[in-house]
Write a structure and sequence with these properties.
191 residues, mainly beta, 4-stranded antiparallel β-sheet, 3-stranded mixed β-sheet, 0% helix, rod-shaped
Amino acid sequence: VHVAVVAEGYETFVSSGPLATVTVTQRVVTVTLNETNKTYGAATPDWTVKGVDGLVGTDVLAGDPGAIVGDEPTDVSGSPHEVTVGPGTLSAGDNYVIVVKPAKLTVDPAPITASADDVTKEYDGISTNVVVTVTEPTGVELVFEYSYDRETWFAEDDFPGYVNPTNETPVWFAVTDPAGNYLPATNSASV
């Protein structure tokens, strides 16, 4: 750095060599992201900026946050998860270094899609089974329960079946995911 001293009525003085070294370091800009949610099994949506701290004057932050750094949480259990998100394309210019605070990701349960067809048969004294079809999710260990009144529920192997010869009765079924990644489904079929 060369120094020039100018004083009214005097000759201008300019140093002949450097008097001091000035080192300018990058200023830290801290970025806070909005919490985000995703449904179990879905892609994580893009992160959005909630707040910025550390910019000087009229400098602005541009760009978009990056993806989760490291293993991305996939289970509902433990939500909301604290995650590290990379800076992506966020920039405020060469005078700044971007630091993204840990963010929150909530994984919401996905729905179970289950149905059963009504059953019609002539009375023969033999119990009738209701067949429940699950179209979503596939490949997941689910628990099935059945009820005639939605108050008393039976495990799949303990359900007494239907033998009432005179009335049409709804048979309720509930499908749940023991891991909690899917919302329980309840529906009925008539026998």
